[in-house]
Amino acid sequence: MRILFISSEVAPFAKTGGLGDVSAALPKALAAEGHDVRVVVPYYRRVREAGHAVELVVPPLDVKLGRRILRFSTLRAPLPGTTVPVYFVECNQLYDRPSIYSGDGDEHVRFAFLGWAALRIAQQLGFAPDIVHSNDWQAGLVPVALRTVFAWDRLFAETRTVLTIHNIGHQGTFAADVLADVGLANAADQLHQDELRAGRLSFMLTGLLHANAITTVSPTYAREIQTPEHGVGLDAYLRGRRDVLFGILNGIDDEIWNPSRDAYLPTTYSADDLSGKEDCKRALLESVGLPYRRGVPLFGIVSRLAWQKGFDLFFEVLPALLRQHDAQLIVLGSGEKRYADLFTHLAKVAPRKVAYRNAFSEPLAHLIEAGSDLFLMPSRYEPCGLNQLYSLAYGTPPIVHKTGGLADTVRQFDPRTGRGNGFTFDHFDVRGLKWAIGNALDLWQHRGVWRRLQENGMREDLSWRRRVKEYTALYRKLVP
Ligand code: ADP
Ligand code: GLC
């Protein structure tokens, strides 16, 4: 099958979170199954500045989007370690900005144009996609654009569309008067009329009403978003389309996230021989200036600092944990100030126990996964979550709130049966998280059982090789 995959992030070029990892690993896995996959992403300033080798495939071209004339060219580079082409939309007017997501007044244009340009690139290459796979709100207008503005082009006559929801908390909702700016002035009759009357245009809603199929990144989240509690206003629409809504769990790229070959680690290790993990712990502690003390459990966190991630529980839980237990904590993450302030404060009052790095660092993220003894992820909601999967693969049992993809991938360890791969709590509150941490610390004392817990996670097949089949089965159902 020919698949055009459109995303606002693709690792290692542009990544702020899990979307970047998935938009690299899923196309790679699809290509390994023999499909012709092309990925399209903006040429952000950071991609240019990182100096990736790219070649020009289509020279500058002026495109009219609404009232604007936008000049763009198409650059190409392979996804590292593969032959999958990544097409970069170079349009400096829109993407030469300090960050991937801008909060500027033309954010709707920046991402409407991504979808628009992706279809133009397909035209220029004569690439007739069987599937156009859009990701999140940023590519949400593509299905309706195919049905209207691009409907004349027979290249797309057989094309079917899939929209993957990675996070329904971000919907790309703008005032309805942006319609002309996003090139849909003549397509208003195809849009949701009540929404337009209410003065809104939502990229996500438009996408999920027009896509031939909708997926989200775990089965539990697929159910949750159909409820008022988790649907963030879109639950009724999702219930209306439940026949074409599927939950497919994310996998991990085990060429990149694999303790037995991870180039960021001082010593590699595997489920058969975990000795290298202790070296990683030593190196990790040393790299952040904390003392190594044998037998003291080390908690790790790698995360965007956002409300979604459930860190509000930490204000009460972490000070108590550090007071009552001999434990250490390393946090890597940036985002909302109140959480950054909390971690900064903890590192100040407990300098031998806590280290905080307010940064985005791929090497340190890998070292934390490997060097920590436990991984903390108490998310309020979590569409899938990748860090708990990385933790499982690295023998670092995760402590998670039982929600979304966390509920689908982490199973409470039962010392009597030896089954389970981590620690879960049902209710999102301080008691729940304290209980789960207490549980983990009790088990930590029993080294033999702990080893079993680690192995359970490390021996699971969490790879994309397995998950990708669910996507291809879905694509096949859609193509005529
Ligand atoms: P989300 O997509 O909601 O942020 P995921 O768990 O799916 O959550 O994926 C997060 C990804 O982003 C992981 O690959 C994680 O390692 C990475 N990440 C998050 N914050 C940082 C950071 N500060 N430095 C390096 N990597 C980070
Ligand atoms: C989103 C979600 C996260 C998911 C990722 C990749 O950012 O917050 O749970 O793992 O997308 O699908």
What this model shows, in words?
By secondary structure, this protein is of the alpha/beta class. It has two domains: 2-251 and 465-478, Rossmann fold (3-Layer(aba) Sandwich); 275-462, Rossmann fold (3-Layer(aba) Sandwich), CATH 3.40.50.2000. The chain is built from 18 helices and 17 strands. It has helices at residues 18-32, 45-49, 92-95, 107-125, 142-147, 193-197, 203-210, 219-224, 235-240, 275-287, 314-324, 337-349, 362-371, 387-393, 404-409, 430-444, 447-458, 464-478; strands at 2-6, 36-42, 55-65, 68-78, 85-90, 131-135, 160-165, 173-175, 200-202, 213-216, 245-247, 298-302, 328-332, 354-357, 374-377, 398-401, 423-425. It has a nine-stranded mixed β-sheet, with helices on both faces. Helix 1 (18-32) crosses helix 18, helix 10 (275-287) crosses helix 13 (362-371) and helix 11 runs parallel beside helix 16 (430-444). It starts with a strand and ends with a helix. The structure holds adenosine-5'-diphosphate and alpha-D-glucopyranose. Adenosine-5'-diphosphate is lined by residues 17-19, 21, 302-304, 332-334, 359-362, 365, 384-387.
